[in-house]
Amino acid sequence: MKDIKRRVELYSLYDRSGMEEHLAKMAEKGWLLEKIGAYLWTYRRIEPKQLTFSVCYFPKASQFDPEPSEAQETFYDFCRHTGWVLAASNAQLQVFYNEGQDPVPIDTDPVQEVSTVHRAMKRSFLPGQLLLLVVVLFYGWMFFSDLQKDPIGTLSNPADLFLFLCLVLLLVMTATETGTYFRWHRKAVKAAEQGEFYRTKGRQKLQMVCLALIFAGLVWYLLSLFASGSRMMRVLTILLFLIYVPGISLLVNGIKGYLKKQGTSAGVNRAVTFGGSVAIALLLIFSVTSLALYGSSHGLLREDNTVTYEYQGRVYTLQRDPAPLTLEDLLDGDFSRYTLRWQGSRSPLLGQYSANQWPIGPVELFPEMFYLDYEVILVKVPALRGLCREAKLHERDGWSGRNPVWQGYSYAPTDPTPWGAEEAYQWIPDGGADPIEDNHQYLLFYPDRVVEISLQWKQPPTKAQMAIVGEKLGRGKP
């Protein structure tokens, strides 16, 4: 039978009533609080008993303090003389218990109590909530900026959608926590003026729901990554979650704990811990990146779909990913020395896939070179079809400024029938001039997808080739 139990507790820092009632119930079950962390609380097994708990605050205390201050020790002595025993403390939060029946409360002045709670919240809770809000708004601005620039890429990227889910839920948690606290404080001040203690009310259930949704989103993101991501991305993600995130937490807390044991002042501890956290973060980023690059350069992260051929003593490596459409489907010839890459990302909203096929090797092996590039956008939510259509039609609006070669070109309507599409556009010079030689580019719209394809060879596509494109890319699973 275990004598130690650890639980994740999500009580708001100011939620005295919720914490006191919870700890009393745990004591009745035979568990007494022994150590309190930001979220992880440790309990020690005891004989089940009825205990009264009191949660107090010491505004000047800090998590960097090497030991309780003289004022805190005086406060602890006062509590001991009145029957209150310190169970655990964490910075400003102090938790006491009393075995007596109807013990005299530690705080007997409601006005002083509310003032103490508010001073403690202004020192830690409120600045933390404000910082979190700034971070959420900053990343929210970045997300919507990316959404405006590349709506298809953003909405089809599991990482972006997971980030957006986290931002929304963190915003809800931050706004709710802060708003609830200020509402409580306003009512508590009025009640204190009448000589009454006003009960606190946290949002533990809301936090649990939000964190559960974030965890579910994380699981979905990881499954999506491992299902469709590259081996490099999978390895980087594993290194991130197994080394980077826990490494920073363990090392930073280790530095802080070591300095506290050495009796280092709170100011020095804070400065060293902050500087150390920055240095550790940079070091771990360098380590993770170096490991990934080492694995890539030594072939450890090579994708499974690779083949090689040798010519004049040199070995050439080709990627041969399975793709719905290849040059072999459209043209006669030997394309065994062509590399074919197929990659994509998908979310519950959109799927974005692309393929590229081109020759690898000396020019003399390819008397005539062919290139095939295409992108398939799978629209899973019909309401997003219009957004995808407009995004692709206007995606190249600013190209002429960045690439003078494309100045004076645009998409013009063409007959969609040979492609089996609802709409079709061809990338041609403005004014109806001849299409681009050796690079026939089309934008095709189907009921549930958008196809952009570039056929880079001399002859324009035949109706038979158009039909193959429609069959391979316009229908079925990408």
- What is the fold named in CATH at topology level of the domain at 321-473? Protein Transport Mog1p, Chain A
Based on the structure given, which CATH architecture of the domain at 321-473 is correct? Answer: 3-Layer(aba) Sandwich
Provide the β-strand percentage band: 15-25%
Radius of gyration: 32 Å
Q: Sketch the major β-sheet.
A: 7 strands, antiparallel
Q: Globular, elongated, flat, extended or rod-shaped: what is the shape?
A: elongated
Q: What spatial order of strands do you see in the largest sheet?
A: 9-10-11-15-14-13-12
Explain what this protein looks like in three dimensions.
The longest helix is centred in the first third of the chain and has 40 residues, at 110-149. This protein has helices spanning 16-28, 70-81, 110-149, 151-155, 158-193, 204-228, 231-261, 266-297, 327-330, 385-393, 399-402, 463-473, and strands at 4-8, 31-36, 40-45, 52-57, 85-90, 93-98, 306-311, 314-319, 338-346, 350-359, 371-379, 409-413, 423-429, 440-446, 449-456. The protein is of the alpha+beta class and 478 residues long. A 7-stranded antiparallel sheet has the order 9-10-11-15-14-13-12. Among the domains are: 4-98, no CATH class; 230-302, no CATH class; 321-473, Protein Transport Mog1p, Chain A. Strand 14 (440-446) and strand 15 form a beta hairpin. The protein contains 12 helices and 15 strands.
